[in-house]
Amino acid sequence: xxxxxxxxxxxxxxxxxLNPVRLAYLRAAIDSHWDGDAAGFTPLAGKTVLDVxxxxxxxxxxxxxxxxxxxxxxxxxxxxGAAAAHAALTGLSIEYLAGGxxxxxxxxxxxxxxxxxxxxxxxxxxxxxGLADAVAPGGLLVVSTPNRTALSRLAMITVAExxxxxxxxxxxxxxxxxxxxxxxxxxxxxxxxxxxxxLSFSAARGFTLSDDIALDYFLTATRG
Length: 224
Ligand SMILES: C[S@@+](CC[C@H](N)C(=O)[O-])C[C@H]1O[C@@H](n2cnc3c(N)ncnc32)[C@H](O)[C@@H]1O
Ligand SMILES: [Mg+2]
What we know:
By secondary structure, this protein is of the alpha/beta class. It has one domain: Vaccinia Virus protein VP39 (Rossmann fold, 3-Layer(aba) Sandwich), CATH 3.40.50. It is 32% helix and 25% strand. The protein has helices at 13-33, 60-65, 77-90, 124-133, 150-159, 179-188, and strands at 48-52, 69-74, 95-98, 109-115, 135-146, 191-193, 197-202, 206-210, 216-223. Strands 1, 2, 3, 4, 5, 6, 7, 8 and 9 form a nine-stranded mixed beta sheet that branches. It starts with 12 loop residues before the first helix and ends with a strand. The chain binds S-adenosylmethionine (SAM) and magnesium ion. Magnesium ion is lined by residues 116, 119-120, 171.
């Protein structure tokens, strides 16, 4: 699967389709948190960024293009191999490390992202603690994940896995966290959490940012 990551029609097709929408969300979160200029090209200039569960770098690369000094970590070494190979092709300087968040060994970052990862981890409370510990004072954490609803079961398991849009067995619906559950995990480690933003899908418009959090959502949290 590692080599297939950057194929927009391959097994990560869904993540490719999510990318424009989640970059728009991240851009707005970055500009609002650091009071940036929404028209600037490099809102992350001078900022360190950690992307946890980076896969082959689908998000890490655009974050580097926004000016961030980006580190990506992923539990699967073959994904890190694919990520490093792709960054070399595109000429981007990104630090990639295999492992969980512990791979960064106590370092802290201005922006920490972990999109579509926590639904795959065995111990979400411990994972959230690791994310929070990696956020520098004054920093920002952005997480996205599927909600645990009848809609997410239908769309992501029955339809997406049933038709092969997402590889079968990718998701365990019972592990999905609702926004209140994920918010509670973040608050338990001292983070201040903003209300969730929805990532919804319609046949006519594809993926869009919306108030509808039934399918998938973002949470933004700050230290303090
Ligand atoms: C669905 S992919 C998302 C990739 C990327 N964040 C994106 O949205 O394009 C989930 C990734 O999380 C990684 N992963 C799962 N559990 C992890 C953990 N505990 N620490 C770091 N990476 C993890 C997997 O290897 C996989 O690459
Ligand atoms: Mg997932």
